Amino acid sequence: MLHTFIVGLALFAVAVGAQAQTIKIAILGPMAFVQGENHWAGAEMARDEINKAGGINVGGRRMQIELIRADTNEMTSVPDATNAVERAVTRDKADFLIGGFRSEAVLAMQEVAADYKKIFLGAGAAHPQLGARVEQNPDRYKYWFRVTPLHVGDLVKASFAVVGVAADQFRKQRNIETPKVAIIAEKAIWTEGIVKAAQANFPKMKLDVVGLWQPSAVATDVTAEIAAIQRAGADIVFTVLSGPVGIVVGRQMGEHNLSAIAVGINVEAQKDEFWQAAAGKANYVATLDTVSEVEMTPKTIPFYRAFRERFKKSPTYNASGSYDALHLLKETIEKAGSTDADKLIPVLQKTVFTGVSGVIEFDKRHDLTFGPTRVTGLAIQWQEGRKVPFWPPHVKGMQPFKLPAR
Amino acid sequence: MLQDILVTGLVNGGVYALLAIGFSLIFGVARIVNIAHTAFYMLAAYCFYALLVKGGLGFLVSGIVSVAAVTLLSVICYRLVIEPVREHDAAVLIATIALALIFQELMLFSFGGHYLGIPSTLEGGVRFLGVSIPYQRLLILVVAAAMLTVVWFVLYRTRLGLAIRATANDLEVANLMGMNVNRVAMISVAISVALAAVAGVVVAPVFVVDPFMWLAPLVTMLAIVVLGGLGSLKGSLIGSLIIGYVEAITVFAVPAGAYLKGAVALLIMVIVLLARPEGLFGVAFEEER
Predict the structure, then answer these.
(1) Fewest C-beta in 10 Å: which of A105, A115, A294, B201?
(2) For the whole prediction, is pTM greater than 0.90?
(3) Where does residue A405 rank: exposed (0-12), middle (13-18), buried (19+ CB within 10 A)?
(4) How far is B20 from chain A (nearest CA, A)?
(5) Interface with B, mutate which of A75, A199, A255 (most B CBs under 10 A)
(6) Which residues of B touch A269 (CB under 8 A)?
(7) pLDDT tens string A53-74
(8) Which fold has domain A153-289+377-391?
(9) What distance in Å separates the CA atoms of residue A177 and residue A185, rounded to the nearest whole number?
């Protein structure tokens, strides 16, 4: 009897010990959607690489990563998203949180992370309020760090630079000194600042703004908007779109044979599936993106190729974000020699980490620092079914931006 | 700008008409509030996508099989879900909402939340009054007109149509006259859903296919059917054109308020209802019956 009890106790101790050898990281994303699939795929890649190399060295103890797949269903329900975080923390005992996509949901998830004092590395939402909260109330929100995407203000700078590339092409190839720009921005909080900045700055860039059209982010038809833009004689359509309306705009511009070219932010156009979704009609659509097969850092091309090899498609920014977040977390834990959030935060605040989409350094709002030596993002253009990277020009591997034949 | 509004409103009105005819039929004639109507439209679009894009079958075969399969499914759903609760309007409403959500979740499970594109049946386009119109949109207009004609013919020139109208007018009397009212209702559902499926096959190539694509047209269809007058096919057609034109005028007149086009259309509906609670052609339809 005593023998059985001792053996049982020993087995229990071994089991508890084995459990303590893992660091549990919850990957938060809408898993039925492309965004969640990419969150998970990027995290799986990073986990496999880290675990294969011996795991994370926590003060001399090697610990393996265990991922928790937390489906936030945030595309349809914000309460589902907060419930997923609660479940990951309380039931699954997650030590860290990575992911999120829809700003409305991530703002709510950020609250739960703050309640439980869990480090939350964002890999999807762009809303400025996420960083503003950190600045205004650091005691509560210091657990939040945005690994991707850029802050909206920096997206403005990057997107204007890309519009500048298109405008130069019009000047050189078509002798149009002041190209006409139509702005098409979905009606959402995140687009407001970009639209105002575009209206204020495009004239200074020798661009003639011919109008602003604001469809719903989920509009299924923009033929009236396209007809109006065509009538306005626009050369460039500056897009500020994150929803499925981005597909509709790309497709219907092609169907209506618009001579204007779409350039700007079109989140749907970042995905490989965009070409099929637009039924092959979205030629020449250009958008800001995060990762491509170009040398943003020495890690970019190996990551890109390995991802394509493993998942048979290109990674989105959610994939590169969760991949970078895991590696960043590993480096931070190893530097701090601990998994205690309060010890990790000062390390994260000072870190300069080379990821796949740039060099990550956080500002006082825990947003990414923007710039050629840090993170700029990149821009791609759809050319005959291929995503062709063309900006920023200093990065090796960029190809020419093209205008359609007139 | 005027020609843009005229052409765009007409073409978009045609798209709405194709979706609204079937909805109007089931809503007004058979007195079944089928909230799942646009979910059947979504199912047909997915079926068409699977057969055409994934299966590699041609447009015609994919279209016919999609319409037939979705119509058959509607008959099964009617027998299993709607018929047992048909006497209770609220129960029918709830049952069809549940059906729509089940279809949505099934598509989400099967295809994921990806946005899918269906190639146009007819490629290219034409310029009319300086406005470019893709051939696919013209096809929708033609199909909408053809469907309207067929439905009108069935309702007013056949014995089946007479039975449908008689059942809708007074279910008990029709029953006493020896009509199989349940069968007539089932046929009405089948015709209505077949129209939704045709819309799915013809309209989906100009939109994006996703599991939530049934929601936006549902609201617009409700607005059109209520605006035109419950059950009036003529009302549905004119309601569709009104909504199409209102949306076009909104976009051209207030470009920065393009997102309001749906809200403006609903506002017009409310105003018409305040002035004429029966809708534009509701009374005429009652008299016809």
Answers:
(1) A115
(2) no
(3) exposed
(4) 17
(5) A255
(6) none
(7) 999 999 999 999 999 999 999 9
(8) Rossmann fold (3.40.50)
(9) 25
B132 in contact with A, Cβ within 8 Å: yes
User: Tens of pLDDT along A135-148?
Assistant: 999 999 999 999 99
Contact residues on chain A for B259, CB-CB shorter than 8 A: 186-187, 214-216, 219
Query: ipTM beyond 0.85?
Result: no
> DSSP string covering A385-402, please?
TEEEEEESTTSTT-----
Which helix (H) or strand (E) segment holds residue B202: the answer is helix B181-203
In sequence order, the β-bridge partners of residue A20 are none
All structural domains of chain A with their residue ranges: 2-149+296-360, 153-289+377-391
Give yes or no for a contact between A85 and A350, defined as CB atoms under 8 angstroms apart. Answer: no
A358-382 pLDDT, tens per residue?
999 999 999 999 999 999 999 999 9
Asked whether the beta carbons of residue A244 and residue B210 sit closer than 8 angstroms, the reply is yes
Q: Answer yes or no: are the C-beta atoms of A249 and B128 closer than 8 Å.
A: no
Model confidence pLDDT, tens digit, residues A180-217? 999 999 988 778 889 999 999 999 999 999 999 999 88
Computed over every residue of chain A, the mean pLDDT equals 92
| DSSP state at residue A212 | E
Spans of chain B, pLDDT less than 70: 1, 28-30, 282-289
Q: Give yes or no for a contact between A85 and A98, defined as CB atoms under 8 angstroms apart.
A: no
Alpha-carbon span A359 to A226, nearest angstrom: 39
**Interchain CB contacts (distance < 8 Å): A and B:** 115
For A288, the 3-state DSSP assignment is strand
Q: Which fold has domain A2-149+296-360?
A: Rossmann fold (3.40.50)
Give the start-to-end residue ranges of the domains of chain B: 2-211
Residue-level pLDDT at B214: 92
CA distance B79 to chain A (A): 31
